[in-house]
Amino acid sequence: MYRRHFIAAAVSAVAAGISATSGAAVVAKPARTILVVGDSLSAEYGLKRGTGWVALMEQRLKDSKLTATVVNASISGDTTSGGRARLATLLAQHRPTHVVIELGGNDALRGLPLQLTEDNLTFMTQAAQKVGARVLLVGMQVPPNYGRDYGARFAALFADVAKANKAALVPFLLEGVANESGAASSTRMFQADRIHPREEAHPIMLANVWPELRKLLQ
Hints:
- The protein folds into two domains: 1-29; 31-217, SGNH hydrolase (Rossmann fold, 3-Layer(aba) Sandwich), CATH 3.40.50.
- It has eight helices and five strands.
- The chain has helices spanning 2-27, 53-63, 80-94, 105-109, 114-130, 148-165, 185-189, 202-217; strands at residues 33-38, 69-72, 98-102, 134-138, 168-170.
- Strands 2-1-3-4-5 form a five-stranded parallel sheet, sandwiched between helices.
- Strand 1, helix 2 and strand 2 form a beta-alpha-beta unit.
- It is globular, with a radius of gyration of 23 Å.
- The termini are far apart.
């Protein structure tokens, strides 16, 4: 009799432990790692460290009580081909749950074929998704002097890649910055080179990215 009681008590204790462990697993929040693969717009070119939109995003995550590690792997001057070449190493090293791809602007500045840019973005999106990461594509546009047709096709390729691969999309990182009305916008929002945004523009850039990123995190 005592032996039966002992076994029953032991079984109950084990069951209780399993239940408690299961409960803890349900409520535990998964670790998030956000990998940002971008160019100078994300690499704080010409800015004081900690003032770019990626750094501001990291602070916004903390303020929103969204636990995440942010890895900014952006390189000034990088193209989609450069991002594609180094993505596998970044995925293996950081094992991100979310990947933000902000590349393509330098492709346009160098006059690279639009199909090459689209193919590279597709490859990067699919590679990140294959390791279980959720992808946010950050779109770019080119100035009117590139021609209306080229500009329209360049802007559209980001949406095409996102739609084809069921990825999230920010249509234009510089919305409210590069297309700000008024003749003084180029001097107020951009550095002397008229290409790279000043510190004042980066909160606007984050405001363009944040709504879509937050959806992915939830």
